[in-house]
Amino acid sequence: MMILTDDQRMLQDVVRPFMAEEGAIKTQLRHWRDTGCKDGFGHGLWKQLAELGLTGILIPEAAGGAGLGQVEANLVLEEIGRNLTPSPFLTTSVAAVRALEESAQAERWYPGIVAGETVAALAVDEAKSHNPAATALEARRQGNGFLLNGAKQFVVYGASADLLLVAARTAGTAGETTGVTLFAVPRDTAGVNVENVALADSSKAARLTLVDVALDADAVVGEVDDGWAPLSRALGAGRAGAASELVGIAAGASEMTFDYLKQRKQFGRLIGEFQVLQHRAAHLYGEIEIARAAAHKAAQLIDAGDPRADLFTAVAKAKAGKVARLAVQEGIQMHGGIGMTDEHDIGLYMKRQAVIDELFGGPRYQAGEVARLSGY
Amino acid sequence: MMILTDDQRMLQDVVRPFMAEEGAIKTQLRHWRDTGCKDGFGHGLWKQLAELGLTGILIPEAAGGAGLGQVEANLVLEEIGRNLTPSPFLTTSVAAVRALEESAQAERWYPGIVAGETVAALAVDEAKSHNPAATALEARRQGNGFLLNGAKQFVVYGASADLLLVAARTAGTAGETTGVTLFAVPRDTAGVNVENVALADSSKAARLTLVDVALDADAVVGEVDDGWAPLSRALGAGRAGAASELVGIAAGASEMTFDYLKQRKQFGRLIGEFQVLQHRAAHLYGEIEIARAAAHKAAQLIDAGDPRADLFTAVAKAKAGKVARLAVQEGIQMHGGIGMTDEHDIGLYMKRQAVIDELFGGPRYQAGEVARLSGY
Amino acid sequence: MADLVQFREATRAWLETNCPAEMRVPMKSEKDACWGGRKFVFQSPAQKQWLEVMGARGWTVPDWPKEYGGGGLSAAETKVLKEEMAAIGARSPLMSFGISMLGPAILKFGNEEQKKKYLGEIARGEIRWCQGYSEPGAGSDLAGLQTKAEDKGDHYLVNGQKVWTSYADEADWIFCLVRTSTESKHGGISFLLFDMESPGVSTKPILLISGNSPFCETFFDDVEVPKNQLIGVENKGWDVAKYLLGHEREMISGMGLGGERQALGASVGGVDDPLLRAEIAEFDVDSLAFAAMSEKFIDQLKAGEAHPAMPSMMKYAGTELNKRRHELAMAAGGSDALEWDSERSRGGKLPREWLRTKANSIEGGTSEVQLGIVAKHILRLPGA
Amino acid sequence: MADLVQFREATRAWLETNCPAEMRVPMKSEKDACWGGRKFVFQSPAQKQWLEVMGARGWTVPDWPKEYGGGGLSAAETKVLKEEMAAIGARSPLMSFGISMLGPAILKFGNEEQKKKYLGEIARGEIRWCQGYSEPGAGSDLAGLQTKAEDKGDHYLVNGQKVWTSYADEADWIFCLVRTSTESKHGGISFLLFDMESPGVSTKPILLISGNSPFCETFFDDVEVPKNQLIGVENKGWDVAKYLLGHEREMISGMGLGGERQALGASVGGVDDPLLRAEIAEFDVDSLAFAAMSEKFIDQLKAGEAHPAMPSMMKYAGTELNKRRHELAMAAGGSDALEWDSERSRGGKLPREWLRTKANSIEGGTSEVQLGIVAKHILRLPGA
Asked: In this predicted complex, what is the ipTM?
């Protein structure tokens, strides 16, 4: 069933107005950007999300969470996308929570996440393009533990994170999925050097340099050499969630644009009367509906543990990225000059789209996954 | 200088009305198609082209030809494209003539081509997709000569050809450009089996099966193992020429469509008044201009022996193919139902476009060449 | 609920007994379908028998009322019947524009007498129907039709011409839009039914660029149509037409919804060219995303939550996608796929289907018309 | 012909003597350009000297008449001068909207007194000009402007607001479209020049999404403009504007024409992803084809054979292409390219330039406006 259940609609009815108010562009994105906040997001909002039970949305009820699924998390992310709300929700409550699932580390970190006190970040990329199988950051055995050396980039909100989930290579060579091990690394561990980098959308991502970072054996999430399992879980959830965030970005940008078409006059007519803009708007509307359905499907398959989940997650991330790109491009073009000014919000959608589109693999990476998973 | 010289304009002024009249769709394409002609083109027109001095357009004046260049050949091909005139001009007067250039075989075959009595065909492809380096048809040395065994396909007008130019492998392995040898094979040579295949555009292409075809050493065009040189010359000329034919197809289809926009009424208005159709027509117009410039540039570089000729030939063939595809697709869509009927000519443009687009390598092959020649 | 279980068991038993083995083999093409009607030549006794037993029970149209020849089943029972038929691979006993298009319109707009007569014939597959909507020169502007029906007291005198009548040369009756008044464009249209064997009716197949001729031109020259063959109210035929068009659009938008969920790249077999592979992967992203949307759309329809203009969005997106699919299949087929009649192009099926798809975005309302509908009814853009 | 050879030799010798070595080094960015004007701070004595010697000779505007400060050169001589300057890599002595836009308009529409005064100042780089065309809310509908100029006898009293005035905060004078009559939309516009230091003029930079502020809002509050600063005829300013816009469009359409002929795939350095490589190859096909078209367009312009609406086609195609180029450069740059201020994104140049390109298809007439012009003036479609 591809339509929302009553419970899911209730959740949406709570989150949508909440995010439109508390997570609004002016209140959050512009505020933290213009005050030069080092985190790039508000801890207050993070706490509010916790109070709504959202930070632990994927955490089992037994562990104090809401015990809901990817579909529900995606509903939250669509609203986050719509309002460009800066928040560690995707990386912490979705990706990291899924990574830690059923591991010993979950006990340590889940309570802080549920309480809105802990922020977690995923440290996977080592080059400008996403390619987790290429993980090369070295984790050498030392005594009972490991010694980590190497670098990571595009670690979203890494400088503000308490917990870094670091993919490292314990065996094999770059390009192989076996031999990757996932480590839970507290950010204040000795040898972890963090460069806080501002991105185009004024969110923050860290570049990490790990120099002889010594970890106990229990820092391993899942099994040694078999970190691909928790990592894939985290990336799958992250990608499906990013797809919904992109759908939200597309929806927010296009709604703003469609409204503008009904208000703005040129050559004595509302620009929405021009047939070319009507048809482009109608096309865009349809594409957003399709992307939303794809993201929903991916989330459902993840929740069902269906083997097609990876395929549809790649489809959803690629499609939502392309559609959101179309939405922001049409948004700026249809707004004309005003859309190029910092004062107007539409440009902020373009910047955020670019970042989320790239996160956990851009549309071309995802389309390549679609081909690979389909056997061609 | 990218605009035509006075001489080139004079040539165009002769060829354009000639082809519009003698080469018209009704007179040629439909006539030969509907009478089920085995050749798929008219020998009468071929003779007329000879009388105009066009069959030998690229043949040196000393050999009885017009001694002109690719730019001039392309002007002819644009008119051929515009009228969908079925003719062996591209394969014979452009590709084959360039292949034979400065070879001993030229003396034998040029006079018949100049006279409009000889038809030549290029036998390169061995699989559904163009890939000349993959040539595998075997040419084994036997005595002073060679014994050829293998198969070819998509040999345009091969069943009507007097001369087949066959790329064969004398050394190396499929994928290597060295070790390919080009042979001039009279079609009536023993062991040459020809299957005449009707294509979607009602032109004909042959499938050849060569079984122990014995050839003298002087059947070699150029040097043994170095057939890549004449083959590349022929393919380069063929591709640049095909680019202009595609520009002609695009121009013919779009002119027909633009006229229709000015005549056809829907919802009480001329459909050309609808802004969406206006903008799409304007876009298409621009694309055709660009494709024409690209084809012209490629032809000029070929004539100048410029090292960038291969790059721009690939650009031109790819661009013209894409643009012609857009033109026929927009043509059918803008014509509506009537365009789907066999009675209307616009569908014929779509069929011809598909064939010429594939000939000597489709747009993706060409774009791949652009990447390769640009070093990425 | 207990009733439904019982109904399922009874249905299963009945199908087991009554569905011939030959009718449990999947159809290879549209040619294997049973179209019914006066001129239809059954391909096998089994095909005839299957139609007869199903027709007698009203299960060709399970959810129509019993008094009009239907099965009188509830929505839940209809679903059970379909599931049980699917379970044994039973073919549809009857393909029919009467079932999919005309029937619902008669149910809504016809009088009692008409319902009794026509719906029964449809249910039993006795009459094959064709559609007389489009006219030469009208194109997307359906309401601009010119075929004239003059009031001659007890009958209409019909003169004019239709095009794009599917299988008009094989159909028994036509449902037809005619102009009974010129006072207003939409207000002067009426909806008539008549026998294709009426004096003055002639048809001429249209040769398409694909080489096939599934459509005809249909000519009316002083055709007399009794007045009791008017459906609904005179001059209000546009309401009937719109209702019926809605059905058609849903049907077309649903065309690509069932199958084709497999990745194209997996079905074309061997994509060596990296640039083509890239394009196919891009296509598969769009195509699989659309498959998800189709699933959602069907669920929305079932739940009564689909926006009335949503079929336009689906029709537009689905047909444009289908055109792209065939463009890419042709590209993957290379010069093999260009052969008009050879085994390499599956007997010419590859290029012909490719050409056929070009009509997808024209028939049943062009892509441009669909986008206009979305702009107007969903986005509510001014002047759309 | 002999004269031309002589002219070339003389020019070469003069340049050799007078062009400072520093002015033969290629400019690194727009910031190295000499803009002239009252507020301009020369980057080096060489820059100042180069402007002075060229300005004194009239060679900043070699083909303008000598009596107005130009070089008085023929078209052939101008070409020789440019070739000789290019041969030694000489920088342009002066970047100026006065030269590229206002000058030609004054030459065509100005009176003798105006030509003498303004053209000379432009030629010598004494006055830097900015353009007062667009107004808030007007957008593509330039002629809908509201800035009012009331006739007060010997002067106009100007009130209103302009936007998108490039470098208004650095310019000395403005050329400005104002409304002198409301009787007709296009018929009530006049073309005024005035000093940006006039009382009542103020400017406010506009912060763009790229983080840069090359444009201003400009406000006029009871600005008094002497009547002899009207160019052409009162209420006929739209003719001047159209003439000038033609120049601007040609300039913009020519922007991408010179350089950028290198394949993008060769310049981004290492395309590992096969899908990205495919897209870049597709782009390079379009881009190199457009390079050929650009070459042809320039030749057509020179030969006087370009259709008057062709710049619209070029502007549309060139700007859409440039947007695509930067989209792909960003994709190739991955997460590095998203860094707003780091060395990995070339100090933020990569994302800022990408964002900047989004205005390409808006400024100087939107892509939609250009397509409309092509549809109307080239294709002559009805009602375009």
From this structure: 0.93
Q: Tell me what percent of the residues of chain B surpass a pLDDT of 70.
A: 100
Whether A1 is in a domain gets the answer no
In a domain, B1, yes or no: no
Contact C109, C239 (CB under 8 A): yes
Residue C253 pLDDT greater than 60, yes or no = no
CATH number of the domain at B201, please: 2.40.110.10
**How far is A255 from A281, CA to CA, in rounded Å?**
10
Inter-chain CB proximity C272 and B129 less than 8 Å? yes
A219 and A239 assigned to the same domain: no
DSSP state of C92: P
Residue ranges of C 238-277 with Cβ closer than 8 A to chain A: 263, 265-266, 270-271, 277
How many structural domains are present in chain B? 3
Domain that holds residue B37: 6-118
Q: What pLDDT digit, counting tens, does each position of C183-208 carry?
A: 888 999 999 999 999 999 999 999 99
Helix (H/G/I), strand (E/B), else coil: C143:
helix
Which residues lie closer than 8 Å to A137 by C-beta, 6 or more apart? A126, A148, A149, A150, A151, A152, A166, A167, A168, A169, A210
CATH label of the domain that carries residue B65 = 1.10.540.10
Residues 6 or more apart whose Cβ sits within 8 Å of residue A185: A123, A148, A163, A164, A165, A166, A192, A213, A215, A219
> Which of the residues C248, C250, C279, C353 is marked catalytic?
C248
All structural domains of chain C? 2-123 (1.10.540.10), 129-235 (2.40.110.10), 239-377 (1.20.140.10)
Q: Which residues of A touch C (CB under 8 A)?
A: 1-3, 258, 261-262, 269-270, 272-273, 275, 277-279, 281-283, 285-287, 289-291, 293-294, 296-297, 311-312, 314-316, 318-319, 322, 363, 366-368, 370-371, 374-376
* One domain, residues B29 and B107: yes
Strands, DSSP E only, in chain D? Answer: 129-132, 148-151, 155-166, 173-179, 189-195, 201-206, 215-226, 230-231
Looking at beta carbons, which residues of chain D come within 8 Å of C279? 278
Task: Using pLDDT thresholds of 50, 70 and 90, give the confidence band for residue D246.
Answer: confident
Domain stops at, among A225, A255, A289: A225
Residue B318 lies in a domain: yes
Q: What local confidence, expressed as pLDDT, does residue A151 receive?
A: 98
